[in-house]
Amino acid sequence: MDEYNHFVDWDKMDVTAQSQDTKDLTSAELQELKPLARKGYWAKNHSLRAKMYHKLISSIPCRTVTPDANVYRDISVTIVGKRNSLTLPLPEFVDNNLIPTYCLNSEGIGAVRKIIFCIANQFPDISYCPALPSFVALLLHYTKDEAECFEQVCRILACNDPSKRLIDQTYIAFESSCMTFGDLVNKYCKAAHKLIVAMSEDVLEVYSDWQRWLFGELPMVYIARIFDVFLVEGYKVLFRVALALLKFFRKGRAAQPVESQSIQQEIRAFVRDIAKSVPPEKLLEKAFAIRLFSRKEIQLLQMANEKVLKEKGITVKQKSLCFILLRSWKSLLSQGQIFQGLQPLECHMGWSSDPFIWDSQPEALMFPVCYFSSLLILCALHFRFYSHSDGHEPTLLLIKTTAKEVCGAYLSTDWSKRNHQKQLSFFGTGECFVFRLQPEVERYEWVIIKNPTLAAADSEPENHSSPATSTHLSRSALPDRSDQLSPFLSARHFNLPSTTASMFMAGSHECIIIGGGDGQALYLDADLNYGRTSHCDTFNNQPLCSESFQISVLEVWGFGD
Predict the structure, then answer these.
(1) Is the CB of residue 542 less than 8 Å from the CB of residue 405?
(2) Which of 50, 77, 152, 281 has its CA 20 to 30 A from that of 263?
(3) Which residues form the TLDc domain (predicted)?
(4) Considering only the top CATH level, what class is 171-312?
């Protein structure tokens, strides 16, 4: 073990089970290694595991030009020089993920930052790779120096075998893997899914955490055992283990009283402390007992999820709007009137601690711009509101009533789409939601976000008559895409064909309606002077303010560069 002790704090490593009775496997075929990897054969000896990692990673088919150890020795001098490795900035594509220390000493932690810094220099095409710090930190335990670790990670990143998926390197790949995991949970962990739906306001956010469980929360001995099998069997193993974690969490959670802590934090804590309840052997046994889809079927599912994301234009992760609004507080006060009535603490509560906008919106939300204000522009739907709002998406509709109540809606779709139908018709997507800011903060998302099974409702287009107008409201005929979509992580982005649960936004020269089905979340008249609010099926909301109200100020905000 002496040749691998440079970066490892051996006081933290579990070396009690180290066995000397191990045979040389460097000449073994891949099929021979599969059962041995699952049984943890090379977990018995640190040097053997290091040799197996080198053998397996060296066999990965790569691009013709893949950075190697010699490249690292050169660039580490030119781009790092004498800088302190512990102060090197991490690239944006790791998404602010902390480096797992595992059993590394301080020199090892600095080496991880240095290696990642050099990888970013050699792989400019990587745009999103939150798992990379874990890969580098783990492999550094089993390589002789930084250069060898760099070369091994580069081979994993440069794999050019289309049938072998190893690590997500773009946001669309990451997001589609989260969607695929949502599909698998729905099929193989129904009890865990029901628990998460019952306890979480955002099921989607919980499932987006699945890679963090593996590459952020799991202790060293667990992720090393998983990595043993991963290098032999590929990406599918990660899905298996994440599903097994949820099954064990659900089993343990069933016997505990309901707590106020978020289910997302509870799962993270369970995974972090898994050694208290589930040994590595039992976790892997449960993972391989799941009769999962074949690798090809999972690959096709993931490709389908990527396809629908691309169709919607969801390719990069953007900064959260709550951050942008808080950062731009002075700008909001100077440009708009509604926010002047809110105290900074109230706005912080509305946009940050209970965020209305998800951290991963597909649109390029950059800087808030006030497109329309009723205090500055004549209030008339035909002449002013639409002319200032058309051509922009998403937009934020804010209303302040004469009773000083504040409410509104986040609207995903360009208002100009109202012109695509001859009659008053609903359009928009499941990203829409309505909210109240005063007198208290409340948000109401699309009802299918919390109850995805409603997406399977009658898919035939129907005409819906609004009690506020004699005009018939119709859903545009949409293709049935339910066979292509994750019911959880893609639900927001698409017009899933259901009935009153998908009536998002409608507009004409006579009125604006947000939310429909057994009432409307918001109804505004043609002069933008009076409005009504009530419960509606789409958002399952309570009235957002006084049920009949007079508008004091109405504003439309968008988000430009």
Answers:
(1) no
(2) 281
(3) 343-560
(4) mainly alpha
